[in-house]
Amino acid sequence: MTTQAAATTGWRHIDDTLFVTTDADAPLRGAKCPACSTVTFPAQDSCPRCGGSTMAEVTLPRQGTLWSYTVQSFAPKSPFRTTEPFTPFGVGYVDLGDVIVESRLTVADADALTIGLPLRLTTIVNHLDADGTEVRTFAFEPAGKAAS
């Protein structure tokens, strides 16, 4: 998303290359090796499995299941640390079928998470730019929850 678009909408993706489009509800962009069918996220230019030098862009599913998880209970190191008070957050591996994606989770209560929990893609605010623009990143939320 361009700076002009961010000024109009008040938000931008943390990295547009992670998403298929710059739309707010854009799915994640992966890559698939035509030789061995390995799928990667984020998209890569070459295959980490067979060494193939070409990868085809694929749109990743918006829904998956929780493969593993933890709750981050300590503040990240610089440059990811902010001046705001730290709040624990969920982190998990989400099985999207052909690929498992590491992601923030919208749930930070370990007792509310279980392996196999159905999840769906959403976005969350990662931080605010100096001008107040929301910088959003992808996350997964329980599929039964109302869309954010």
From TrEMBL:
It comes from the Bacteria. Pfam families: OB_ChsH2_C, zf-ChsH2. Residues 57-122 form the ChsH2 C-terminal OB-fold domain. Residues 28-55 form the ChsH2 rubredoxin-like zinc ribbon domain. This is DUF35 domain-containing protein. It comes from Rhodococcus wratislaviensis NBRC 100605.
